[in-house]
Amino acid sequence: MQTFERLESEVRSYVRSWPAVFTRAQGHSIWDEDGKEYIDFFAGAGALNYGHNNPRLKQSLLKYLESDGIVHSLDMATDAKRRLLERLDEVILKPRGLDYKVQFPGPTGTDAVEAALKLARKVTGRESVISFTNAFHGMTLGSLAVTGNEMKRHGAGVPLKTIAMPYENFLGDDVDTIDYLRTYIRAGGSGVDLPAAIIVETTQGEGGMNTASVEWLQRLAELCRRNEVLLIVDDIQMGCGRTGPFFSFEAAGIKPDIVTLSKSISGYGLPLSLTLFRRDLDVWEPGEHNGTFRGHNPAFVTAVESLSYWEDDALSGDVLRRGEVIKQHLEWMAERFPEAKAKQRGRGMAQGLHCGVNGLAEDIARGAFERGVICETSGARSEVLKLLPPLTIDDSALERGLMVLEESLVAALERRGIAAARTPAAV
Ligand SMILES: *Cc1c(COP(=O)(O)O)cnc(C)c1O
After folding, report:
1. What domain range is 163 assigned to?
2. Would you say residue 24 has pLDDT above 80?
3. Quick one: 248 and 383 in the same domain?
4. Is the minimum distance from the CB of 378 to ligand 1 under 6 angstroms?
5. Which of the pair, 93 or 188, is modelled with greater confidence?
6. Looking at ligand 1, which residue's alpha carbon is closest to its atom 10?
7. 269 CB less than 6 Å from ligand 1?
8. Does residue 7 lie within any of the structural domains?
9. How many angstroms does the Cα of residue 363 sit away from the middle of ligand 1?
10. Same structural domain for residues 294 and 317?
11. Is the beta carbon of 107 within 6 A of some atom in ligand 1?
């Protein structure tokens, strides 16, 4: 660890949460250099939905590299890219009635968002974009402008113009935040112009696992449609099956104008991101948003292979079933340990435990790491213990991991002298 402290910038982040040097990983397991095994409930922040070193994906990648397939090509045409475009269309877009064109931004989520914001402005000729409280859309200037977290925004060192409107339930259960939003953009005297777009996450992965209801999303889509405002769904973390269906917005039956994907789109943890948009919005001039790394062919190869998981409903069904196991366990923890003032959040295999006791979620995560489970926290004050296991985790590992979280909760409460010793019961 000393090497990292001595040579790597203070900007390093996750290395501080999990002070171990990792050497090997397979499926839901990751090993450190002392040979200790951890169950990975973090999954690369959702970049490893199909697990570490997924054997199917690995085989396709090895074969491609072995055959001297093209690794870098800027955005020239390659057979790997053609195959991805075709498979995405056949397996994902066509069956869902989505006639989207595909843009390859730089291979990070934040650049997919930058492309979406630019395009929305170019199409509408309007300047502003509305985002939501506790939103996270990335760390470059445009994406930061639509991100809620103050610490992250302040890192930019320049003023970032933005309008954040309350997400569902941000103002309590009684305030209808869609009505509120409608009033602002229609009033004329609100100081809020009609925006080019509204950007939203269906579940706020970084912002505390707040989940918008199906009705709220439907009303938001309708509000956008009526006012000719483009709806951007940032599905970078919640897409690729994280909440059950391939796109997280499918449950609401809405069709966003623009969709961003990254994290698990390559399936293998290789960097790749996509910005998808309605065909008629494709007003880009050639090269208007480009760069060196637009065509990461190894990532195309694993992405193509990962789409095989979406040829039927099996994985989607597993996610919903495992999501129910997670939900029940978290609700049960909240009920059994009222001292934690805890509440289940999220949907599918993107869930969290909101802890009303200051610092408790971080304590649980730290304890879980010592006991061999990796999970992070989420929310502006890290108040939510966040679970993001690989979608392909087997049921017994999932339950073992959940038991460890429960033991860690008990230990964290005990350390605070809040609860008497209680032996965790089986699920
Ligand atoms: C991770 C994330 C991003 C940013 O992706 P990077 O690859 O880290 O730039 C944007 N939006 C959402 C919802 C994310 O979860």
Report:
1. 58-310
2. yes
3. no
4. no
5. 93
6. 137
7. no
8. yes
9. 25
10. no
11. no
Centre of ligand 1 from the C-alpha of residue 44, in Å: 11
Asked if residue 250 and residue 337 are part of one domain, the reply reads: no
By the 8 A CB rule, do 360 and 340 touch? yes
Ligand 1 binding pocket includes 109 (Cβ within 6 Å):
yes
Check which CATH number belongs to the domain holding 96 and give it.
Answer: 3.40.640.10
* Number of Cβ within a 10 Å radius of residue 220: 25
Token pair, residue 157, equals 């060192």
End position of a domain, from candidates 241, 275, 310: 310
| pLDDT of 190 | 86
Instruction: Specify the pTM.
Output: 0.97
Residue with tokens 């999303």: 217
* Same domain membership, residue 110 and residue 66: yes
User: Which residues, 6+ apart, have CB-to-CB distance to 361 below 8 Å?
Assistant: 353, 354, 355, 377, 379, 382, 383, 384, 385
CATH code of the domain in which 357 resides: 3.90.1150.10
Q: Domain tally for the chain?
A: 2
Residue 424 domain flag: no
3-state secondary structure of 201: coil
Q: Is 275 helix (H, G, I), strand (E, B) or coil?
A: strand
Which ligand 1 atom is the nearest neighbour of the CA of 140? 9
Ligand 1 neighbourhood includes 242 CB (under 6 angstroms):
no
Same domain as 149, residue 91: yes
**235 touches ligand 1 (CB under 6 Å):** no
The pLDDT tens digits of the residues spanning 373-395 come to 999 999 999 999 999 999 999 99
CB 262 within 8 A of CB 233: no
Residue 422 lies in a domain: no
Indicate whether residue 236 lines ligand 1 (CB < 6 A): yes
